[in-house]
Structure formats: C-alpha cells, structure tokens
Automatic annotation (TrEMBL):
MF term (GO), any: ATP binding
SMART domains in UniProt: AAA (SM00382)
Family indicated by similarity: Belongs to the ABC transporter superfamily.
Protein name: ABC-2 type transport system ATP-binding protein
Matches recorded under Pfam families: ABC_tran
ABC transporter domain ranges (all copies): 9-234
Keyword Nucleotide-binding: yes
Keyword vocabulary terms for this entry: ATP-binding, Nucleotide-binding, Transport
Length: 244
C-alpha cells in the first residue's frame, strides 16, 4: 500500500476490559492526514482508555491500533511522530513552563531554540518563568499542548484538551489545531462536551459505554439533524446512559 494512503491514526476492533467492566468494546475509526476527529462521549465512555491503548500506555485485549501504519511501540521516532496530552494535571508543579518545555525538548532531542516560540504561540510568554503550581487549569492545558508540539509531530492525541480553557483559550486551541491540520497533521481529540468538538473537529465518533454509537462529518450530522447536533448526541447517549 502507498504509505500516503495509510491513515495517520487507525483503530480497529479495539477491546479492553478491566475485570467485569468493559471499558472499550469493538471501537474502530481512522483519522486521515489533515483531519481533526473528535471522540465524543459521556464520562466513562472509554475515550481515555482508547487513547491510552493507541499510545501504548494500556495493553490491548483485542484489536489493533496504529499510527502511520505501525503500533506506537514500533514507531522509529515516537516523539517526532506523535504529540500527546493525556493529563494536563500531571505537570511537575515546582517547575516553570520554560523549564518544563526545555526538559521536553532535551528528551525529544530537539533544539532548545524551539522552546521560546512554542511558549509565545501558547500565550505563555509572560508567565513562562512562574512555577506551574501557580497556573490555572487553562494555563496548564496550554503548557501541555506546547509540550506535545515540541517534537514537531505529525499526529496529535489530546484527551479533553479544552477542559479548563476560557473562551480565549478555546479560540486559541481551535486556531492552533486547525492550523496543525491545514499543515497536513492529524488530530484525535476527546471531549464529553459536544460544543467543544463541533467547533474544531471535521468528524465525530460518538462513544457510550465503550461502544461507537454514532459517527459522521460534523457538517453532515448538523444538516441531517435539523441543525441540532446536541439533540442527536443526547439521543444517542441517553439510550446508553448509565453513570459510571
Ligand atoms: N485502570 C482502570 N482500572 C479499572 N477500570 C478502569 C480503568 N481505567 C478506566 N476504567 C473504567 O473503564 C471505563 C472507561 O473509562 P475511561 O476510558 O476513562 O472513560 P472516559 O475517558 O470516556 O471518561 C470506566 O468505567 C472506567 O471506570
Ligand atoms: Mg477520560
């Protein structure tokens, strides 16, 4: 197969159980280069677990997950291929944003000169030398996203990246991700909030209780559901509602 036809991200028949809890049940989707796919679903739907399996952070019971045609563990240059944010709360509280990015750059083997522009693009130039413990959740999300971009990846995997962002932050995220996709990058992002996904994603995959319950292009879904994407989403997930 021509490598250019290989999806940037491909997940097929992914399955994972924790004891009697089926966290992810036969989930399949692909993300092409230049596209943003939103994984949308209520809490406990299996979004984080799917991403962790894609990134080799959780074992896969059944199915396959690949990035540019390979399992994450077999990528020749993982940091230069995939940028990920799974837990913006996991940043070292005592470090400054600049220190955090410099360490990430050193670990990725990229020039430290990349750090300042990334901080500026993330709107962190003014606060880059303050300890991360003093940052709001939105600022931590910005640091985490800047860190994900350190290796100049072609794929971004972002778990609830809009969480904690104010309207300016949400706009920054949208602009950044649309620019990343316009440059040929592929983005997989998750959210439990429809509006966050609808404004940035080309396509959505709706998951509930581990299963894909709907999917499509945001434009088409909006047209087919009388402009009311939210009603569609709530209908889909209500049938599968069970607080977990
Ligand atoms: N490490 C784990 N051990 C046990 N259960 C887990 C673990 N991680 C996730 N789960 C369960 O798997 C289900 C899916 O969780 P998760 O992928 O975090 O959902 P989401 O990210 O969509 O909120 C939930 O029922 C959750 O409690
Ligand atoms: Mg989650």
């Amino acid at each position: 197969m021509n490598t250019h036809d290989t999806p940037a991200i491909a997940v097929h028949g992914l399955h994972k159980a924790y004891g009697h809890t089926v966290a992810v049940d036969e989930v399949s989707f692909t993300v092409a280069r230049g596209r943003v796919l939103g994984l949308l679903g209520p809490n406990g739907a299996g979004k984080t677990t799917s991403m962790r399996m894609l990134l080799g952070l959780a074992s896969i019971d059944r199915g396959q997950a690949s990035i540019h045609g390979r399992p994450y563990a077999q990528l020749a240059d993982p940091v230069g291929t995939v940028g990920a944010v799974l837990d913006a709360g996991g940043l070292h509280p005592g470090r400054t944003a600049r220190q955090h990015l410099r360490i990430a750059a050193a670990m990725a083997g990229v020039d430290a000169a990349r750090v300042d522009p990334l901080l500026d693009d993330a709107g962190l130039g003014q606060s880059a030398d303050r300890a991360i413990r003093t940052y709001s959740l939105g600022m931590r999300q910005r640091v985490a996203l800047a860190t994900a971009l350190v290796g100049d990846p072609s794929v971004l995997v972002l778990d609830e990246p809009a969480n904690g962002l104010d309207p300016a932050g949400t706009r920054w995220l949208r602009t950044m991700l649309r620019g990343f996709a316009a440059g040929g990058g592929a983005v997989l992002l998750s959210s439990h909030i429809l509006a966050e996904v609808a404004q940035v994603a080309d396509e959505v995959v709706v998951v509930a209780r581990g299963r894909v319950v709907g999917s499509g292009r945001v434009d088409d879904l909006t047209v087919h559901h009388g402009g009311d994407l939210e009603a569609y989403y709530l209908d889909l997930t209500a049938e599968n509602a069970e607080v977990r």
